[in-house]
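Researcher: Final request for today, and then I'll write up notes for the group meeting. The sequence and the SMILES for calcium ion follow.
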Amino acid sequence: MLASAPPERAAAATDCGLTASANITTSNNPNQAGAVVAYSAPTTSGTCGTITCSPASGSFFPIGTTLVTCSASTTPVVKASFTIRIVDTQPPTITVPPNKTVSNDAGQASAAVTFAAPMVSDNAPGVTSACNHLSGSLFPLGTTTVTCTARDASGNTATASFHVIVNDTEPPVIERAPDVSATVRTNATGGIVSYTPPAAHDNSGANLSVACTPAIGSTFPVGSTTVTCSTTDPSGNKTTKSFSVVVTRDVAPQTELNNSRIKGRKATFRFSSAPGSHFECSIDKRAFKPCTSPARFAKLKLGKHVFLVRALDAADNADESPAIKRFRIRR
Ligand SMILES: [Ca+2]
Ligand SMILES: [Ca+2]
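Model: Predicted protein-calcium ion complex:
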């Protein structure tokens, strides 16, 4: 009797067991878009023959995640994998243009200013930059800080700033100042003249005051006087403008005594002058008092009398040579 052969047990193709390294996360090498990473060989059990891993330990791994696969030289092949993740932790660099100083655009409280784009670099491609003001945009008078930010593909940022300085170099404008002709009452030094000071405006938009010399309400001599007005904008730009004040002595009205009538102890006087005049009368050297034509006097004493009448204009300029009438009341 033949002993039956023991059943052949299928030999296992391999008893190799591989346990790969744990996943690895690390930063980039300085100024590199990745890192050289050495990792441990997989641990083995059984017979695994030669083990090769790809990419090999000590390779350069790019930023991001790379799958490393280790294979035993068995049939069938036994494999084990893990990942190596390189994180870009290096921020980009940014260099902004130097501070820029310009004058305002004509008539404006601002200037359109262009500037070079910032220079950026990074250990990895994909860096972008942006500034909080655009080149070519309007910048107001004064100092504006432009801040630019570089951002790499991994979100690391760097910022740098520079100043745009817009100076107001435009002097203010004083509006046309018309000459003034004034006919006024005058004394020994002249007459008082008021005028409207000219308005001023400036590209800065500031409210400007205008100072004039001689000032409004000064006493101006008869003849022509130059009034000089000036104003200064907040940046110290000054403008002056002149006009003339011509003072003419106001001529008092002339008094006409048209008619005198003496009857008994009564006297009646009719007088006239330029339209708009009014009158003052004086009898027998007493003080002048307001009167109208006809002016009547009664109960005059016997003897000599003198009547004076003077016209005054609306400004109370009195005729310096009153009309006079000498008369006598007879018995
Ligand atoms: Ca970077
Ligand atoms: Ca100005």
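Model: The first strand starts at residue 17 and ends at 19. The pocket of calcium ion (ligand 2) is lined by residues 168, 170, 172, 202-204, 233, 235, 237 (CB under 6 Å).
Researcher: Thanks, that's everything.
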